[in-house]
Every structure is written in C-alpha cells, then in structure tokens.
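Internal ticket #5521
Category: modeling
Description: The requester needs a full-assembly model to guide mutagenesis choices. All entity lines are attached below as received. Residue total reported by intake: 998.
Assigned to: D.W.
Attached entities:
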Amino acid sequence: MKFRVKNLAIGTGNTMIALINYIDADKYDLHFSDRVRIRKGKREIIASIDITDSHEIVLPGQIGLFEEVYREIRTRDDDIVTIHIDEKPLSLHYIRKKLDGHKLKYDEMKAIVDDLIKNKLTDVELAYFVASTYMHEMTVDETVALTRAIVKTGETLRIKSKIVVDKHCIGGVAGNRTTMMLVPIVAAAGLVIPKTSSRAITSAAGTSDTVEVLCDVCLSKDRMESIVNTAGGCLVWGGAVNLAPADDKIIRVERPLSLDPLGQLLASILAKKKSVSATHLIIDIPIGRGSKTESKKKAYLLKRRFENISKKIGINTRVVLTDGTQPVGNGIGPALEARDVLWTLQNSVRGANDLKEKSIMLAGEIFDMVKKTRKGEGKKLAREIVESGKAYLKFIEIIKAQDAKIIYPEQIDIGEFSHAIESPRMGRIAHVDNKAVNRICRIAGAPHDHGAGIYLEVHKGDLVKKRNKLFTIYSNSKERLKYAVEAVKYLEPIEIKAV
Amino acid sequence: MKFRVKNLAIGTGNTMIALINYIDADKYDLHFSDRVRIRKGKREIIASIDITDSHEIVLPGQIGLFEEVYREIRTRDDDIVTIHIDEKPLSLHYIRKKLDGHKLKYDEMKAIVDDLIKNKLTDVELAYFVASTYMHEMTVDETVALTRAIVKTGETLRIKSKIVVDKHCIGGVAGNRTTMMLVPIVAAAGLVIPKTSSRAITSAAGTSDTVEVLCDVCLSKDRMESIVNTAGGCLVWGGAVNLAPADDKIIRVERPLSLDPLGQLLASILAKKKSVSATHLIIDIPIGRGSKTESKKKAYLLKRRFENISKKIGINTRVVLTDGTQPVGNGIGPALEARDVLWTLQNSVRGANDLKEKSIMLAGEIFDMVKKTRKGEGKKLAREIVESGKAYLKFIEIIKAQDAKIIYPEQIDIGEFSHAIESPRMGRIAHVDNKAVNRICRIAGAPHDHGAGIYLEVHKGDLVKKRNKLFTIYSNSKERLKYAVEAVKYLEPIEIKAV
C-alpha cells in the first residue's frame, strides 16, 4: 500500500500513531491499533493505526503522521510512503495471557515493560495490562518480575557506598515530614541516603512540595549522584530524574479509574528504591482511623508482601506500623511544614515533638538494621544526632547543595490571610481527621500556594475550653480562605468529646 | 484558571479532549483524563484533559482544543477561556464497580452506554469497561441491561408489520451464504425480514461483501425502511445504518487484544436484532472441527444464553446447531459465492445443493416459528418457494431495489488468474478445513479483490483418484495467486484418507 504523507504538527506525547481515513481502513482491512511498518527510502518505523471519519484531516490515500513519527522517518507533506501490515507486538499476547488469568514470567513482563518504554503500546493496551493485574492480583514472583523489568528499563544511581539506605511512607498522614528529618539524621551518622520523593496527589503537601519551599528539588541524575556522594543525602523530586520511568507511564493510565493494584503499588515503590541502589529500606505504614490503611489486616498483608519481594530483589527491608490516626507535626501545607521541620531540627521550643520522636524512632530502626549501633541502641544514637544539632547542620549542608533559597524558619512566608477556628465547647479532642485536614488545606490553596495550610494548636487527647483556639487556616487568597473556613463546617476535622 | 486557546486543526474522532502543557498540569494538579468545564462567554463544554511534554504544541498558559471541542464552543486562536475542574462522570464509578466484581443494574449500564455514545468516555476508560466484562462475565440480567441500553441509544427501524423475522449466524463456515437465500425465501412467503449483515473480519467474505458484487449495500435507514416495507426484505450492510452505534464503539477497543466477552457478543448481536424491530429470530450455530464453536458444550451454553436473553428483551428466538465441519456451497470469495447463490436460486444444475438444503431447513424453522405453516410443514413451503422460482424472483426484486449492477450469474467477473490444485493420490475426502480455506482465499486477495477465492470441486466424503481436481484458486493478482498456491502446502486445507 502506498500513501501520501500529511505531517500533523502535533505529538501524541506517547505512542507512535499513524492516522488514515476510514475508507482506506475499510479497503485495506486495517483496524484501530493494528501495527504497520511505514517506509520512506531506507528509513522505516512501526506505528499504530488510528482511523478518522472526517475528510478534513486525512483524505483517502493520505496518511497523517504525528510529530513523533514524522521526525523519525523525516517525511514532508506529500512524500509517498509504503505501508506494510506488521505483526502485533508479542507483549500484547502476554497482556492477553494475564487477562485470561495465567501467570507471567520475567521475560514476558520484561517484554511488556520494554514495549511500554519504547512507546510501542497504546493507552488502551496499557489499560488492559493494568486491568489484568487489578483483577488477577500479581503473585510475589510476578511482582518481583515487574519490579526487575521496571528497574532494568530505567537508569540506576551510581553510589560509592556498600550500604545505601532508603525510606518510604505509604502516606495519608497530614504534615508527616519525617523524610526531611530522617535524611539529615541518617546522613549525619555517616550513612548514605539518596532520597527521592513525590509531590502531593491528594494531600496538602508531598515531601517535594515542602522541600521546595527551601531549595531546588528538580535535580538531574548526575547532580543528585554528586550531592549524595559528597553530603551523604539529598531531598530530590523523583519526577525530575529518569529512574523507573515505566512506572510513571503505568500510573498515568491507572488514574482515570483511580486503580492501584497491589502488585503495581509494590513494584512501583520497590523499583524506585532499587533504582537508587538501596540496600536497606525502612517502610512506614501509618494505620488506624483516617489513615490510608485503616485495617490492621491489610497493613500486615502489605508488610509481608514488602518484606517478601524486597528479599527477592536484594533489599533488606523493615516495615514499621505507626499511628496514623492524626496529623504529625503542627503545620500542614508546604510553608508551615517547612517551618516545623527547621524549628524541630534546631531543637527550638516551637519544634514539633511528635515529628521529632517519630523521626528518631525510624532512624533508630535504620541504625539497628545496618548494624551501625548495638541492637536496641539505634534510637539513642538518633536522639544524640538530633539534640546535638548535628542533624540540623547536615540538613543545612544538603539544602545548600541544592541551592537553598531559605535556611531560617523566620524567612518563610506563611499565607497573608488567616482565620482562627475556636472550640465551640469544653471537652477533650477525640479525633483529628487527616482526610478532612488535607482537604481544607487544599481548598485554602495548598500545595500550589505554598503559604496555604493549617496550623494545629491542639492534638488528640488535649483538653480544651470553650473558645480555645483549635487551629488557624492560612491562605494567600481571601476567597480561598473563605471557602476553607466554610468547609470546616461540613468536613468537621476535629471531634471534641464532653468530659 | 484562565487559558489562551490554540485550536488544533485535527479531531480525535472520539472523545472531547483538551491538551495542556505538563507545567500547567503540575501547577493546577490536573491529570490525564480529568474532566474540565471549558467556558467561553455563555458557551460551555466538558472535555477530558490530556497532557503534553512538548513546548511545540501548547505552551504553559495555553490550552489546545481539538476540532470537536473548538467547533462546539466556537473559539479562535488566542481567545481566553475559563477552566473549572469537573467531577468525573458517574459512569466511571460504575465501570470501577464492575471491575471490582459487582453487578451492574440497568441504570448503571445505561449511564455507561449514554456517556459512550456522547463521547464522554476516553478509550482507556472504555477499555476498562471491556476488561471488566471480560474478566467478570456479565450475568443474564446484565447482558439484558446492556442490550436494552445499546438499543435505547441508537435508532430503531419502523416496520409496518406485527411479525418481523431476523436471522443470525455465528459464522466461521466458509461460503455459508444462507442469508442471501433465506431473505428472498422468507419475503416471498409474505413475511418481513429487514436484514443487516457485516463484512468479513477474518473470513474470505462476509454477507455484505458478497451482496456488494451484485448491488449497493450502503443504504440509509430511511431507504432500508422503504425497501423493506415494499419488497418485504433487504440485504444491507449494518455499518452504513445508525442502528446500535454503541456496539461499534465497544468493538473498536476490543480489537487490540481480540477480546470478545460472551456478554458483549450476545448484547451486540441481540441489540442489532432489536433495533430492526425483530420479533422472531433464528440463530445458526455451526459446530464441529474447523468451525468457530468446536465444542458442543460451548454451543449449548450459547444456545441457552441466546434463548434466555432474547425472551427477556421480547424476541422469540430459536437456535439451530448445524454442521460446521466444512464449507457450504462450492464458491468461496465474494464473486464466486454470488454466482453460487444466483445459480442455486435459479435451480440451475450448477447450483450448490448443500446451500439450498440448509437454507430450506432454516426457512422451514422460521415458518414453523411464526406459525405460517402447520407444525412440521415449514420446510415443505420453503422448498416449494425455492423450486417454483418465487425465491429467485423475490431476490431479483430486492437487489433491483438496491440498484443492482448485475443480475445474471454469467455477468460476474471471476479472478483473471487461476490455478487448479489436484489430488496427490487416490482416497476419500476426510476433511475440508474452513479456517485454511478462508486463509488461502484472503491470501489470494479476498474480500477486497471480489474475484479472488476458491472454487471447490470436492466435498467431505467424496472419493477422488490421483490427479483429480480438488479445487481452483482465483485471483486478479498473479503475485497473490502464487502466494496462495504456496500456502496450500503448509495450510493443507483438504485431508485425503486412503481407502
């Protein structure tokens, strides 16, 4: 078949796609997502077919090439190209196999991830892959295979150390900035912790949003390596480095239906850890009312799976279940959290004690794990590092290496407008709801408005009198502040029980 | 949020899509497939977000609107539009519900089909729907609900008759053109049969490909109605009329992985029958080696499901299991089949006896069903209609109404080049393989080369001597004929057993 080229000045951002008219599709028996080899001279490329009903884009006899395709085979409008029908990629057979309830081996999983990375799979085909692992949950071996395939198809950090520590939190707890505490504590002990983090998806701030208040988080892989090899740690946004890129593509098609198959979640997290060459990993699973993992049973399943799969891919992992029933720290929202972290590292009276204690506990576990200390003495070392100010100095060293804009808590701008919420009556604080707190912060503008958020004046168990301040909402937008204050009424973030 | 419009002079052919830069996506926390309301003046439209990494298509601050979108809200380049994040459509919750293994009610199924028809679902979302019904097979009630929803969202044929007959064959048998026989037999008996058919997908010819050798098959709904109300029957390509359009959209996303969930298959077939107002339906399921339904068990399951669901949607259905172990008729391929049908209707000695007998049997069942004849006498009436020439005259009336190009078998052009395949030895014909025969015909150029195909000289059970002609391959391309002849060696369409 010969076609006349029309270069479509737009990219798909993804799959290689060639667009033909429905009349030609009918004539040549070509269908949506069929693969064709397009040849011009000696150049050849494989693309997926898409079909249009309109005569305004491509006429019969024409083939519309998207940016990715015409750049590759260097066509101009009205060039003649030859088209041959190609076999569908083998990875499609494997996706079908998984849909049919069969298990996939490493080579099969690898073929899928390879094609995914090379933009050989369409979104629809990828959605079938996600659906298959959602409905036929991946076994441990399959998850290991997927993790390995994701690592293999991305870059890996080169770290000059035999022991490389990493940390992960399942999330869901507002204000929980232990990563920003843990990285300097661990690095100050002479260990290496090349930390990448994410931005907020549904919370008031992700670690990267908060770190960004103080310094740059978008570093290249080379710069990340150099900082880690010098300072022992870093606080980088994972989205900026090309580690485990397959993962981002999978997450993209999970989002429309908010799917998050367990195996994909495990592979996604562990592939990222493997890509930074982690040898030791601590995972924090906050549990209880208002957290992401409300059921203990689910938390234990997760714990077992993490430990099992980590072992098989060569990471020594310890999973800690922590209290996820209320926020950690006082500030929630990027700027408020950044200020909390700095105060806490400075051992200021304005520091957040719960944040400090949780970080010391987690760092202690790490020191035990890597045998930095005698068994059971990790926490002691961690406390010494924080209280001596060594953690603070290490933190300043790291953020300076990442082009710090701000190093003093007093320099941080908090939202210009604020509104204090008072207790309507006397009683004891029975519950501070993470989901409601996050929601109110987001309505106030967090995380994009760094200064927006909530500053908690009370915690679970505290006694309050009528008109005591419960929390203050901050925002840089008067309108958003108004909406956030209104939201307090129907979201009821704090429960007070009569005493 | 305000964006500057860039009209992208290309349509998606499907979903309403707005393209933004990844920097804005990050800034406003927008993700692939999020829904947004785009407003310009008083006009507003809901679109799905897609995100581009490239700065060459849309810059930060710009929004790229595809043809479908900018036509609707009438924007020009550089217009300013306001964007609000919208809730995702309810149908997505229902798709997720089905993915999670729950059953869907009619209202939920209807919401999915409604959004599908209105282009509110992306391909990825639709793929999740197909995957959900593939992995959690639809119940009878769900299939009924889907069928009703598909019918409701399409047009329905207006037929001036209380009894409307229809026919369906599961396919897979080469040359099986009973529809072209049945329509004139049934119409000649004074019944109404508004038949739509499909084109070939994997076979040498679909009914519509063969009818097209003789007359026009692309009729509008209005013209189809008028022909049926006058002649009693028609032979139309289903793709040209807007009956059950949801079905085509579903089939489109099934294709990449060749998925065909049973419930979707049943709903797809029965919705089309309901759309032509069918009251009585005969379904032919060919069974046995080389057919689509090789197992009897599967055939009986299909039979029960068809009868069950038909009853619930108000169609009186009879399912007949027929011999699918060899082709029906002598010619395979559009022109060769069209010639067979004409010869058979003319009661010519060159007619195909198996085609005639099968058609008479099926017509007899219909006459019994609608009580046209006394019980058991339907076949007698059918034979009388064929052998008296009434069926032939009715056929000519119908194809003339459809702008016949050819009415005599001698006018039909068979492929210019041919090659006869001879028996390598003496023996009895043990098997004629439908799949192999179809494959060879397609290699020779069928169905797009109408003249390409196979003319069988022998059938199962026949005795042959060495060098007896087994069949002839025809093609209008010397090269394709060569490939088809070579394919005979490895596809082995005919098995001969020593006697």
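Resolution: model delivered.
Comment from assignee: Chain B has four domains: 2-86, 90-136, 165-240+270-409, 413-497.
Ticket closed.
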